[in-house]
Amino acid sequence: MENGGLIGGEVLSKKWKKGWTSIRFIVIGKSTFIFMLNGLTGINKTHSISLSNGANEIEPSESPVYEDKKGWNSGWTDVEFCKVKDRIFLICSKSGLQFIDN
Questions:
Q1: Are 24 and 80 a contacting pair, CB within 8 Å?
Q2: Residue 35 placed within a domain
Q3: Cβ atoms 15, 32 nearer than 8 A
Q4: pLDDT tens digit sequence for 28-77
Q5: For position 95, what pLDDT does the model report?
Q6: Assigned domain for 4 exists
Q7: Residue 62: what pLDDT?
Q8: Proportion of the chain above pLDDT 70, given as a percent
Q9: Residue 85 belongs to a domain
Q10: Distance, CA of 75 to CA of 77 (rounded, Å)
Q11: For residues 46 and 90, is the Cβ–Cβ distance under 8 A?
Q12: Beta strands, E only, the chain
């Protein structure tokens, strides 16, 4: 994403495992993270993302900074992060239901 909200050029092409149904980016302080959720299994993980040598290239961490291998229950259809003052909330929805965690 470029200044003004314009879509920029591709900066990374990487083959991830199949099954991720929700992927969200979140910035905390000066660090950027990618949150991935498999809605069918409930498995979720978070990778940190860093800029490569100040260039327009990103590189996800090889190992997740957080990974829940046991997984949540299945069926989550969407996830969003919401920042209120200095707190960040994860909002998950499933078939009209909502679960909020911070």
A1: yes
A2: yes
A3: no
A4: 887 778 787 877 777 777 766 665 545 555 556 666 766 776 667 777 77
A5: 67
A6: no
A7: 64
A8: 59
A9: yes
A10: 6
A11: no
A12: 22-28, 31-37, 44-51, 58-60, 66-68, 78-84, 87-94, 97-101
User: What are 48's two structure tokens?
Assistant: 């940190």
56 within some domain: yes
Could you tell me if 20 and 38 are in contact, meaning their C-beta atoms sit under 8 angstroms apart? yes
Contact 39, 20 (CB under 8 A): no
Domain with 44 in it: 19-101
- Predicted TM-score (pTM) of the model is 0.61
Rounded to whole angstroms, how far apart are CA atoms 47 and 49?
A: 6
Tens digit of pLDDT for each residue in 78-101?
A: 888 888 888 888 888 876 555 556
d(CA 83, CA 27): 10
- With tokens 């490569």, the residue in question is 52
Q: Let me know how many helices (H) and strands (E) the chain has, helices first.
A: 0, 8
Residue 99: the pLDDT is 56
Q: How many domains does the chain have?
A: 1
